[in-house]
Specification:
Elements: H1 3-50, H2 55-64, H3 66-74
């Protein structure tokens, strides 16, 4: 094979190697982003749970305070 062909093969291999390294770095960054986004999603779910509306707990509170309300109405 002539020297020009070897130079072409070497340049092509270098381009392919650089591209492969670049793609591997992109994969690593995307994995880090996936972990970070997972953490953000879990954090948002925790915030949504902690700031949920009151009506779920309000019925039990009202039931517990019924004797107090009845007493106040009788006075």
């Amino acid at each position: 094979m002539p020297a020009v062909a070897w130079v072409t093969v070497a340049i092509a291999a270098l381009i392919i190697a650089v591209t492969a390294v670049g793609l591997l770095r992109i994969i690593w960054h995307l994995r880090a982003v996936r972990v970070t986004l997972g953490t953000v999603v879990v954090g948002a779910q925790v915030i949504a749970h902690q700031t949920s509306t009151v009506p779920g707990a309000l019925t039990s509170v009202n039931a517990s305070l019924k004797p107090v309300r009845d007493f106040c109405e009788s006075v």
